[in-house]
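Our working data are protein records whose layout never changes between entries. Getting from the letters to the tokens is the skill we practise here. To make this concrete, we reproduce a full record directly below:
***
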Amino acid sequence: MIKPFVVSSPEQLEAIASPGREELIDAVVLIGPCSVSELARQLGRPRHALYYHVRVLRDCGLLLETTRAVAGARHTAFYDVPGRPVSVCFDLSTPSRRRAVTTLIRARLRTALKEVARACACAATVAHGPRRELWATHVNGWLSTSDLEKVNRLFLQLIEVISHAPAEQSAGREAFGLTFALSPVRQRGRGKRA
């Protein structure tokens, strides 16, 4: 059963806007409850470089910590997200919250760029046809209120399709990242739509 989690507090938003922390959240979402060692292997980073960031995410409620006895070792801490999918409530009510939102979006787009670069470097990446794995598109157009509602429903459907619980991993599934941005096209400096 999918239990969504919405990041809404300024403390949580600041925590994931910090470079690399949303990547930690994404990895835990993908692999499920894991130790810092497993997380380090998944990310290809040294374990000691993750402890501080894992504690920050735990302390603000973005990671939940449990302990388990592991064969041949003491009790080990395991981390999971409070729900899947993890989404963000974009609160634009104050200048500091608007800055936090733009910082987070910048970090998400950097992550997407890294993932696209890795896919482009792999000769096995499918770039055409019905099993296409790589997209990077920018389009401007005119949307009515009902068009915008339809776009949002489609985004939610995409999120639902991609947001399988880790238990639903199987030999027939591969990990994918989806990043999209939708914003009104506004005239510079006027706050009005073009």
The helical segments are 10-17, 21-31, 36-43, 51-59, 95-121, 145-162. The first helix runs from residue 10 to 17.
